[in-house]
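Researcher: Next sequence.
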Amino acid sequence: MRVLVLIVMLTASATGQTATANPQIESAKKFYDYVKSLILKSADKMPEDKYPFKPAPEVMSYGLVLAHLANAQFYQCSTAMGEKTIDKGFHESLHTKIEILAGLKEGFAYCDAAFAKLTDAKSAEMVDFFGARVTKLAGLNNNTSHMWEHYGNLVTYMRINGIVPPSSDPQK
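Model: Next structure:
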């Protein structure tokens, strides 16, 4: 009887799984989507009067880190797709919380579209990415890695200002 129950459970488990058309792209997009959500929540959580905050004079302010990330979505995702590199100049043009949030959303929409254009097969196409030949997927993954790097900065800035970062928020 136990063997029969086990067979039924394994069969039900296996049939409940669905194959995806592009598992590599979908897997990479999940990591990108997660850090994107943390960055957007971080941008929202920090009060606007703290956007100029710098823990040291030689580093970027909170707002500038976010503007940099907004710009990097265009810069890195266009390059990863083998297109002409796009530099929106957000470092210089975005100053208020509202402008920065809008820039982030615009940049993330651009990278979302880059992911949507790819299949697993197309993601293996080689492109020039800042002096290296890499796959399109590797270029997009580099962008995700860059986002994580700067999310770490945002976490430190929030902690210094007594704000719980989204990844540590028990209300998430």
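Model: The longest strand covers residues 126-129. Residues 21-44+59-163 form a domain with the Four Helix Bundle (Hemerythrin (Met), subunit A) fold (CATH 1.20.120.450).
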